Structure formats: C-alpha cells, structure tokens
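Lab notebook: predicted structure, single chain.

Context: the supervisor wants predicted structures on file for every construct in the current expression panel, including those that have not yet been purified. This is the next one on the list. No modifications to the sequence; it matches the entry in the shared construct table.
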Amino acid sequence: MAKLAPHISLPGLLLDRAGDAPLNQQLYTGLASLILNGGLKPGTRLPSTRTFADELGVARNTVSAAFDQLLAEGYVESRIGSGTRVTVQLPDGLRSPDAAMSVAASSHCRRKQPSQRGLRLASTRTSASGPDCRWMPLALGGPSFDLFPTKLWTRLLSVQVTHWRGRLLGYGDPAGWPPLREAIATYVGEARAVRASPDRVIVVSGSQQALDLAARVLLDPGDTVLVEDPGYRGARAALTAAGARLQPIAIDGEGMRIATNSTRPIRARAACLTPSHQFPLGPTMSLGRRLKLLQWADRTDAWIFEDDYDSEFRYVGRPLAALQGLDTKGRVIYMGTFSKVLSPALKLGFMILPEHLVDTFVAARAITDRHSPLLEQAALAAFISEGHFGRHVRRMRVAYAERQSVLLAAADRHLDGLLELNPAEAGMHLIGWLPAGIDDEEVARRANAEGIGVTALSACYVRRPQHGGLIMGYAGTPPEQIDKSVAILGRVLQSISPRV
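Prediction complete. Output recorded below exactly as produced.
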C-alpha cells in the first residue's frame, strides 16, 4: 500500500474488502497489532482521519471509528493541536507478550483452515515418546552412537565423492543409487532369505517413508487395515494419514492373532505387522501363522506390509526367514531401515516390491522428495559391498547383548518388587511390567522429568491395556550409564502409590 504521510509508513496494514469483518474493525486490529509489536513507536503521530481515509480509499467515518476504539482502549491519545499519537506508556494489560496475538485473534477476519487431511496429520503422533526423551538414557529406538564407525564412514564419503564427482551432486534416480540397490538385494537375500533383485529395490528415507508410500499407493480412504495392538505408532500414523480404518489385532506368543477361518475370513485391504520381532512385545510370528497369513492375503486380495525393522539383532539362535521370502503370490511389501544399525540421521531405508508395483512406487517416490541423498547412498553401498556392514552388525550384536545383561543386573539391584523385567532373545529394548494399579504414563512422565527416557507401554496400544509397563531401550545407552539410570528409575517407582 502507499505511504500514508511523510513522517509515517505502515507496512503490512492491508484491508480485505471482500472479508467478513468490517473495515473499521480491520483497521483497528492492524493498528493495534503494529503498536504492540513495535511497528509504531510510542509517541508516533498518526495521520489525520481525512488523510488516512484518502490514502486507504475508505470513508472518513471508517477511520474515525477505528481511532475512537484505539483511544478508548488506551492505544493512542489525542490532544488539541497535536493530533493523535501512540500512547507513550501503554496500560499494563496491553504490555503482555501475548497481547498482539490476542488482538489479532479478536478480529472477525475470515481465517483459512487446513484441509481435513491436514488436521488429521497435525493430530497424529508417530512416536510413543516425546522428542526430548530421545537423547536420554534408556530411550527407545536409538542405536549406539558411541560405537558408530565415524572414521571409516568419513573415509568412505570422501572416496565416493572423489570417485563419482558430478554424478553425486545432481539429481538421482528416484528408485535409488544403482550400486546401493544391488548391495541391498544381495544382503537381504543372504541374511533374510528375501526374494530380491536390484530392480525390485527402492531406496527410501527410512521405514516411515516406506510405510507412508505403501499406504498412499495401495490404500484408498476408508479401506480397513489390520494393525498390531500394541504396535508401532509410526505405522498407525501413516495409515491414518492415508484415510485408512484401523482394526487392532491382539498379540500373543506367536505374533498377530489374525483369524483365518476358512469359511469366513476377516476382510481387510491390508495387514501391517512386524513378524520377525514384534514391536514392542517381541514375539516372532510362528511359521504356521505366517503361512496362514499369506493364504489369507491371497484369498481376500489383501496386501501385507512387513516391517523388518531390527532383525539383525538376535542373540539366541537364528531368526526365521522373512515373511516375504515365503510369498509366492506377490502380496508382501517388505520394508527395512538402516536407522537401527547405523544411524537415523542417514535417513536411508528400502523397500522390496512385487515386480508389477515397482513403476508405480517409483513415480510416487519421485513426487515426495525425488530421492534420498546420493552421497550417503554411495557411501552405504561401499560400506555394505566391502563387508563393513556385516562386521558392524556382528559388533553391535555383541555390544547390545552385553548392554541387555547390564540392564537386567541393574534391575535386580534397584527394581526388585517394583518392575518385572525379563530377558529377550532379540531386539534393542526390554519390557518392564508394572504392578497392578500403577499408571505407566505417570511413571514415564516422572522418569522423563528426571532425565530417564523410558516409554509408557500403553502409548503403543489402540485399546487401553489391562496391565501397564515400561519400554526400556538399552542399545543406545553406554553400560556405565545404565546402572545409574535404573537407580533413578527405582526411586521414581518408589514414590508412586498404586491406584485403588
């Protein structure tokens, strides 16, 4: 808009003539906000009502009404011979930090709202714990950052950028860096018995993007999806954002307890699960149930989203082959991530797709963020193909087994009678079961306030569980910190009384 007078300029003062709010109310709101946020300094003289009206192209009465309201509320003062000026000393009620926001909110101007999908996204949490907890001892999900191969990774980055030069500085293939796709196909074929070839691999920015892509490509709003209960909140968030209807399925010692009655099979568009190491309770889906699940998917024309998030870390025996390796009908979408083995900061994961879906997923991948960082993809390809990945996994497996043992020993010392903690054959966390009547969310809040990053087990449920517990991550906590952290948790538990 035009400058109002030689001595004053009011940037950002715009009137919406098509809006619902009266022009005098818009003018009042704009001037009040400028006064409160410092755009108009104390003592500044405002143009006359006539000059203001001419500059804005509105009636003089419109400006006079706005000035009268500002005067009545103490924003301006008027004296004969000196015109209207911004008040030198604002009343106490107008000096609060939120005053400008309150004035803007009081306006009757029409406000734009997000779409229903936007509101759904904003209200959906992907994590069972808050962001501040992720760096705390006993936090869930993080790998061992203190054992990350920093020197080796730095060298691989340098070698790759020197060798490939410009190819790593431009746009890449949405499906991923070809050498990395080949390395992934070889690795999962050998380690997880996955049916994979490089042309069926898509590199993504972690398992969360894999879940989001699968939901958006294969589901329509209103489709029913079977989810584990308890289960991974990130999966439920991606499915909810795509408009799916979630049907929670309970977990037992064989994994998801899906009904496979031959006469009336359960109807759903997809099932989303973690069969190799169920999150968060930990059971491995039995072979018999895996075969029945595949039969169900074929009979009902359903998809299976297999999240194989931490299968590398098994401490007793060998894991069962991936569910995808048993699939002969192209029903399984296999997802893996490098966040648990190396670092979530790399933002690298992958999908193994049925051949007929590859082009569709690549197109959808290109729409979201085109491709993952090429330099990191190239370094990871070398890390895998040169054998470093296998050695790193073996090293982490030993370290994590030790940290689990340290956690169990610390629990014996500090949590006896307060928390039931049992060893696990795989994974990066343990479940601690609380006595009846203890609210796990209250325990988690108090522990987090003391700097201990445990997570309430109930946060992973769709239905409210009958028995509360804590998820205690040990992989990312150095052994010397575990005992001290468990002692603090013990004091927190002692301070909480059971609810009757």
